[in-house]
Write a structure and sequence with these properties.
- 70% of the residues lie in helices and 3% in strands.
- It has 276 residues and is an all-alpha fold.
- Helix 2 runs antiparallel to helix 6 and helix 4 packs antiparallel against helix 6.
- The longest helix is centred in the last third of the chain and has 32 residues.
């Protein structure tokens, strides 16, 4: 069965019915709110909001399973490398040292370092659900129409639309090529050595690249034949006007962002929450 990673499947719920522009603005506000602050309390609050929005969107787990695995691996590697290269950065930030245990004189595990690294990991983890919501609930054509409506050049908006459309197409092409190669005896299973599997995957990537170039040329010729770019403006079949729910959503996410600024400026006095 083919995966549905990055594939847009229309549903009738609050998140899907929002404008593509609204989802972009909300995504940016929520991301800035998380990235600006190192207060783990507020980051966890945003993470809970992201989980609630993700539940409302009705996205199926099979759509994000592979992405979730990659994100988990990235977070683990980032956590380990952060400690490997900056094992005392937490103590420098908070100005205190509460040692738990040590491996040697350089690699000492402190409460401050753990707080810093857990906060950093939580920041990344809280942004991922919002990115998934934006990618999987936004109709690329409707999103391009929304961008053009607020002043973005329609050529750039259309290029972004094609990019979002191409992700699921590329994945389907990869799966089709992989099945064709396996029918010819190419083994991608765990029975083969890792080096052999990597070599076999490269044998799939080469035809994938050529098919991608062919598709780019085909789309470019089709757009030229239809006179794309001749006029300064164009109409959109799937243009969606901003409704009350769109404005309320953008105001809510803006308030979340302003809350992050207030926590940083007035409550903590800096980007870092110091419980020590």
């Amino acid at each position: 069965m083919k995966a549905k990673l990055f594939d847009y499947i229309d549903r009738d719920n609050f998140i899907f019915n929002l404008s593509g522009l609204t989802k972009l603005v909300c995504f940016l506000f929520m991301t800035f709110a998380v990235m600006f602050s190192y207060d783990i309390r507020y980051i966890l609050f945003v993470m809970v909001l992201s989980a609630v929005f993700f539940k409302i969107s009705g996205i199926e787990f099979k759509q994000i399973k592979l992405m979730s695995i990659y994100v988990a691996i990235f977070l683990l590697i980032n956590f380990l490398l952060t400690y490997l290269f900056s094992p005392q950065y937490g103590t420098e930030i908070y100005g205190t040292t509460h040692e738990l245990f040590r491996f040697n004189s350089r690699y000492t595990v402190t409460v401050e370092q753990l707080l810093y690294q857990i906060t950093k990991t939580t920041k990344y983890a809280s942004v991922v659900p919002m990115g998934m919501i934006f990618l999987l609930t936004t109709n690329p054509s409707e999103f391009a129409a929304s961008l053009n409506r607020v002043g973005c050049n329609y050529k750039g908006a259309y290029a972004l639309s094609l990019t979002l459309r191409y992700f699921p197409d590329m994945i389907r092409d990869y799966q089709d090529i992989a099945l064709a190669q396996q029918s010819r005896g190419l083994d991608l299973s765990k029975q083969e050595k890792l080096s052999v599997r990597i070599k076999n995957i490269m044998n799939i990537c080469v035809p994938l690249i050529f098919s991608t170039l062919d598709r780019i040329e085909l789309i470019s010729n089709a757009m030229d034949l239809r006179g794309f770019g001749k006029h300064k403006k164009r109409t959109w079949y799937v243009a969606k006007p901003l409704r009350k729910s769109d404005w309320c959503s953008m105001v809510f996410c803006m308030l979340v962002f302003l809350g992050s600024l207030c926590m940083t400026t007035f409550v903590n006095g800096s980007r870092f929450w110091n419980p020590f």
